[in-house]
Structures are given as structure tokens and as C-alpha cells.
Design goal:
It is a single chain. This protein is an alpha+beta fold and about 675 residues long. The chain is about 15% helix and about 30% strand. The protein is built from 10 helices and 31 strands. It has a 10-stranded mixed sheet with strand order 1-2-4-3-5-6-9-10-11-12, sandwiched between helices. Strands 13, 14, 15, 17, 20, 22 and 23 form a 7-stranded antiparallel sheet that branches. Strands 16-21-18-19 form a 4-stranded antiparallel sheet, with no helix packed on it. The chain is globular.
């Protein structure tokens, strides 16, 4: 099996959608294992209230142990259908020398109890994460060290378990997850994330849990149990946080990192790592919305995840602790790989040092640096909740996600657009994006939305980030403040953080409206309690942009080295391009990326030492047009490890040759 395929299947375990995972638990005999190379033990593990959770343990057949353990807790069913046998086998192989523990969460799969939607996984009356970690550490096959791993729901339960501070938890790797359910998963800006929450609960066959949110639409003490940000100082372990700029939990990943890295307890503070790519929630999607980016595969960090556990659980000095705390992908023009952006940045802190630049909204639909005049007129639109602006891309789970062309929405009468002049220089942003909006409404309650787009030279308006604010929650997520007649409040719309280089020839666009459905529940404008409204009414909205009431898009603009153009691909005649390898220097393996544009059907890729001796060869025949990647693991054609040093990657095709030097450090 190829290395690429193995890693894809391996990572698939972490992000496999809920609706294709089996519901029932597996209760096989102790001497049978669906995962090759292991002995399976199935146990019903008692929690502190006596409820038992179905748990499969995969103990290595080789070695005598005891071993450190990797714990995965899931609401999707730990049962091993045939489609998952190979996945867990590869997981076990990749994590050689570990015990793998997979558990059904309370009320799910083969576990007892009532599904509580994470409320039993943290530091409340039930502490299922804590209890399971300590049970694992006490088993005879365990050396007492436990790590946790997983994506999405499997990552959320890691944050909640860490907040309960189980003594035997040593580290975690949380992928596309959040530790603050109310603000990042349920009610962003006070508005209900309808498609995400209702769709996910429906897939889990737990639509009944919506009743809790109907009765608790404002933040109250009940949500404290699923809000890690309120107790980051209780966490004592390092995490590898992995997220995506177009993920449903982008800000959740960032807030978990910053909270623990700068304010966590002993053992957590200063020991966090964060990686954010251009990815949607399914980070294996090669195409992100309607765009694709070079050198952006999550497989680049496959070894980093393995090294993370080896360092913390096996005390291996593999250098992962010396890697930069923050690695982010700076998005750019996806059509111009040689332009600004489209590269990885290594940072010492987040957010990076930036200048908050105000781009003011103007009555003529422009967006610029000059403050508006005193006599700048407002713009108005009518919002009809019966005909909301449809969602087109964005940070979604079960509807199309990522950067999508917004022109169809921008043509609607209730969408106000504000656009810069054509850029003559690169504008690089990395950090939080917000909109300060002065707006009035004749409704008691309403919403305002904001969408940031990168306008390409051909006219496409590609979504970068978006956000929303519910008027009644403009001041607080705890209390309501309804609109008064004639009131023109200042709204702050949080579009969450992003990182993108707006290239010369492009324009920056901001769109303002009052709906984004079904991404967010459409506000009926009546001021009635959430989902208990008796009707809907239209709202007349007015956006102000004069000197006394300015509205502005605030971008975190970088300067200096961060704005440089990434290392460019090397072209050769014949339609082949050699991308920079990543990482470089490298330790265990490096990704060799190349592009085929369809003009030739054959090429050859060599690894050579500095004496010109060929160590490895790949024939590039039969590759379809597009981007491809190979992994070099530092061995020659006989499988023998080569020594540390500088090597040459040579790509030949169409009668031309290009080379690039790479460095192996052991």
C-alpha cells in the first residue's frame, strides 16, 4: 500500500462523517481483533455514576508492555464495520508501540446512559472524559501515560476532558474542534447556526436535543460545562491544535490555542502548537470550495502528529518541541501559484504583529482608507425573512463550504456591497477580522451580516470570511437588549480570523445584509423568543457611513517579511512544475509536489546525492493534469536510510531539467 494512501486512510478515521459511521457497538470476544497486529479487549467501563461505556482496547501483539495509550472517544459508534477495519489497522501501525482505546460516548453506540451532547464529558456532575482517562491509566497493559486524539466531535471531547484535569492525561491532538460550544458551534454572534446544528443532530438521530437550545438561547451557567475558555487555567497538558481557515470551528481552534498557550495551567502554558491550513472541515478535501491551493495538503503534517505523541508519551527527542508554536497557511490568488501568498508562515505567536487598518464604507459603494464626510448619505435595504439571502459557501459542515463566488448574492437588492479600487500592491492580512457597523432598523430585533470577498480580475467574488450579529445580543450573549425606535447602535460583527494575501489586480469587497440562510437561522424580526415566534415581518434597514456614524471593515494588515512571495515553482518545458518540498529541512519524510498541466505524458523525478549518484527514481507516466505529490522517506532504492546532508531533487521532462536542493537532518 502506498504511503500517500496509507496516510489518507489513517487521517480519514479522524474526520469520517457521522452519517457513514456505524451506529451499533461491537462486542467481539477478547481473543479476536479486527485490527491486525493487536489483541482486542472489549470492556464496559463504569463511570462515577455507574453508567457503563462500551470501550474497545487494541493491545500490541509485539512487545511485552506496558505501553502508553491513545484514547479516542466518539459519538459515531466505535463498531468496526468492514470499511473501518483497514482504517484502524493503519492507525495502529502508524502509532506503533501504543495501545489504542476507542470508546462510545454516553448514550451512543453500545454505551449505556442518555446522550447529553457533551455535557457529561467535561467537569460537571458526570466527568466521562476524566473517568475514562484514569481507567485507561490503571490497566495492566498501560504505563500510566494517556494521550487523546481525534477531529471534530472527537476533538471537542479532548478539550472538555482536559478541562477536568485528569492526572494521567499527558497530551492531546485536537483537529478542527472547539472548546466553546455556545459561541463557536451553536450561537455565533447570538444567531443560531441552523444548518450545522440541526443537520448534525439529525444525522445522529438526536433531533430532540434541539429542545435544549430553544429553552436556552442565551448563554447561561449551563453552558459553563462546555466552555473551556472559562477554565483554561485548569488545563495542565500540551495540545497540538489543527484547524482550517474555512472550517466550522476556525475561531474555536485559535481560542483554544491562545487560551492554553498564554493562560493555561502549569504544563500547558507555553507548550501549545497550532497549525491552520486553508481547509474546510473535511481537511482532506483537495478542492476547497471553488478554489484549490498549492502545497496545502494536511499530509504535510502527518509526521508532526506522530512525533507529537512520541515526544510527550515516549520521551523521544524528535525536535517537535522546537518547531514554531504557530504555522499558518497564507492564502492567495489560487489561480497564480507564483503570486503573493499560497505559502506557509511560521510564527512565534498568535496573532502576529499587525496594524488594524480601517477600510471605510462609503455611500457610493466604495471601500477605502479615507474617512467619510459629514454629509455622506446612508444606504437602505429591506430584509424579508421569508426570502432570506441564500448561503453560498462559508464555514459549513453539511452544506457546500469554503470560498464560493458571491456574485449571485451580491446582485440581490438587500445586499449592499462596498469595494476597493483595483489593488496596485499586495495587501496581506493575518489575524482577527471585524466590521464596525452603524445601522438602524424599524424592527424590535433583527440581524446584520457581513461577508469579506477577494474579487479576482475576472470578476469572481470569492468568499474569504463572514459573520453575523443578532441585534438583541449586540451588547451581551447573556442578556437581551431590544432595539428602540430611532436607535442607531454600533454593531461589531466578528468575521473570525483569517490569513490571506490580496494580490495586485484584485479588489477587496465587503457585503452587508441581514441573512445568510440556512447557515444561520433567519431572524423573524418580531423580537419573540427563539423559535417561538408566531409570525414574521419585514424590516427596513439603514446603514450609515458619515463622519459622525462611520462604518468600517477592520483588517489586520501585516508588513515586513510576512508579505514576501513564497518560493516559486520551477517550470520546465513539457508541462511539468516542481513545487518546493515541505518540510525543508526535514527529519523523517518530506513531501515532493509537482504539477502536470497536460502538455506531456511522461517525466522522471530523481533524488541524487551531491556526487550525482541517483538514490531514488519515480517515473511520472500516466499522471492526470493537476497537482500530485510523492513522499521521500530518506531511503534509497534498496530501502536503506541515507545520512544527514544536502540532496538534490531533479525533475526531467520534455527535454528539460530543473533541480532543487533539500536538506535531511537526523
Amino acid at each position: 500500500m502506498s504511503g500517500i494512501r496509507s496516510q489518507l486512510i489513517f487521517l480519514a478515521l479522524l474526520i469520517l462523517p457521522a452519517w457513514i459511521l456505524p451506529e451499533a457497538g461491537h462486542a467481539g470476544p477478547q481473543n479476536f481483533s479486527a485490527v491486525s497486529g493487536t489483541r482486542q479487549i472489549t470492556s464496559m467501563v463504569a463511570m462515577r455514576d455507574g453508567v457503563r461505556l462500551a470501550t474497545d482496547v487494541y493491545v500490541p501483539l509485539l512487545g511485552t508492555g506496558p505501553w502508553p495509550a491513545i484514547l479516542v472517544r466518539t459519538p459515531y459508534g466505535r463498531g468496526l464495520g468492514a470499511s473501518l477495519d483497514e482504517v484502524l489497522t493503519l492507525l495502529s501501525e502508524a502509532l506503533g508501540g501504543y495501545v489504542l482505546v476507542v470508546q462510545d460516548m454516553r448514550g451512543r453506540g453500545g454505551s449505556e446512559g442518555v446522550d447529553s451532547l457533551y455535557f457529561s464529558d467535561g467537569w460537571g456532575r458526570e466527568r466521562d472524559g476524566y473517568d475514562t482517562v484514569e481507567w485507561v491509566a490503571a490497566q495492566p497493559w498501560s504505563d500510566g501515560k494517556v494521550g487523546m486524539w481525534g477531529a471534530s466531535a472527537l476533538g471537542i471531547v479532548q478539550y472538555l476532558a482536559a478541562g477536568a484535569a485528569p492526572p494521567s492525561l499527558v497530551c492531546g491532538c485536537a483537529i478542527v474542534a472547539t472548546g466553546n460550544l455556545y459561541e463557536h458551534a451553536l450561537f455565533q454572534g447570538g444567531a443560531y447556526r441552523r444548518a450545522l446544528v440541526d443537520g448534525w443532530l439529525h444525522d445522529l438521530k438526536r433531533d430532540s436535543l434541539q429542545a435544549y437550545f430553544i429553552h436556552h438561547p442565551h448563554y447561561d451557567s449551563g453552558y459553563d460545562r462546555v466552555n473551556l475558555s472559562a477554565r483554561v487555567d485548569s488545563v495542565r497538558v500540551p495540545f497540538l491544535h489543527i484547524g482550517g481557515w474555512h472550517d466550522i470551528f476556525t475561531q474555536g481552534t485559535i481560542d483554544a490555542f491562545t487560551g492554553l498557550h498564554y493562560s493555561g495551567g502549569d504544563g500547558a502554558r507555553g507548550r501549545q502548537k497550532m497549525i491552520i491550513g486553508p481547509w474546510v472541515h473535511n481537511i482532506l478535501d483537495w478542492r476547497i470550495g471553488e478554489l484549490s491551493y498549492p502545497n496545502a495538503s494536511p499530509l504535510l503534517f502527518f509526521q508532526t502528529m506522530i512525533d507529537w505523541f512520541d515526544y510527550w508519551l515516549k520521551d523521544r527527542d524528535n525536535g517537535v518541541d522546537r518547531e514554531p508554536p504557530v504555522q499558518i497557511y497564507l492564502m492567495g490568488d489560487a489561480d497564480d501559484w507564483e503570486g503573493p501568498g499560497n505559502r506557509w508562515l511560521s510564527l512565534d505567536h498568535w496573532p502576529p504583529d499587525f496594524t488594524p487598518v480601517h477600510f471605510y464604507l462609503r455611500a457610493d459603494g466604495t471601500l477605502g482608507l479615507d474617512r467619510p464626510g459629514w454629509d455622506e448619505p446612508p444606504r437602505a435595504f429591506t430584509y424579508d425573512p421569508a426570502d432570506p439571502v441564500p448561503t453560498r459557501g462559508g464555514r459549513n459542515l453539511n452544506i457546500p463550504a469554503g470560498p464560493v463566488d458571491q456574485r449571485l448574492n451580491e446582485a440581490r437588492a438587500e445586499v449592499l456591497t462596498y469595494t476597493t479600487e483595483i489593488l496596485t500592491d499586495t495587501v496581506v492580512i493575518a489575524g482577527p477580522v471585524t466590521v464596525t457597523l452603524r445601522a438602524g432598523s424599524d424592527a424590535t430585533d433583527t440581524d446584520f451580516t457581513a461577508s469579506l470577498s477577494d474579487v479576482y480580475p475576472d470578476g469572481r467574488s470569492m468568499l474569504v470570511a463572514d459573520g453575523i450579529i443578532r441585534a438583541r445580543h449586540r451588547n451581551s450573549i447573556v442578556e437581551e437588549a431590544f432595539l428602540l425606535p430611532g436607535e442607531i447602535p454600533e454593531y461589531t460583527i466578528d468575521l473570525w480570523a483569517t490569513a490571506v494575501a490580496f494580490a495586485p489586480g484584485h479588489r477587496i469587497r465587503l457585503s452587508i445584509s441581514s441573512s445568510n440562510f440556512p447557515r444561520f437561522e433567519a431572524n423573524p424580526n418580531t423580537g419573540e423568543p427563539f423559535r417561538l415566534h408566531t409570525g414574521m415581518q419585514t424590516a427596513s434597514q439603514v446603514v450609515y457611513h458619515d463622519a459622525a456614524r462611520p462604518s468600517a471593515l477592520i483588517l489586520p494588515v501585516l508588513s515586513g517579511v510576512e508579505t514576501g512571495v513564497r518560493s516559486r515553482p520551477l517550470r520546465i518545458a513539457g508541462g511539468l512544475r516542481l513545487e518546493p518540498n515541505y518540510p525543508n529541512p526535514f527529519n523523517a519524510a518530506t513531501l515532493l509536489s509537482f504539477q502536470v498541466d497536460g502538455q506531456v505524458r511522461e517525466g522522471v523525478l530523481h533524488i541524487l546525492n551531491l556526487r550525482g549518484e541517483i538514490l531514488r527514481t519515480w517515473i511520472l507516466a500516466g499522471y492526470a493534469p493537476g497537482r500530485h505529490a510523492l513522499i521521500w522517506d530518506g531511503t534509497d532504492h534498496r530501502g536503506r536510510a541515507v545520512s544527514s546532508g544536502v540532496y538534490v531533487v531533479r525533475l526531467a521532462g520534455g527535454g528539460r531539467i530543473v533541480t532543487r536542493k533539500i536538506t535531511l537532518l537526523k
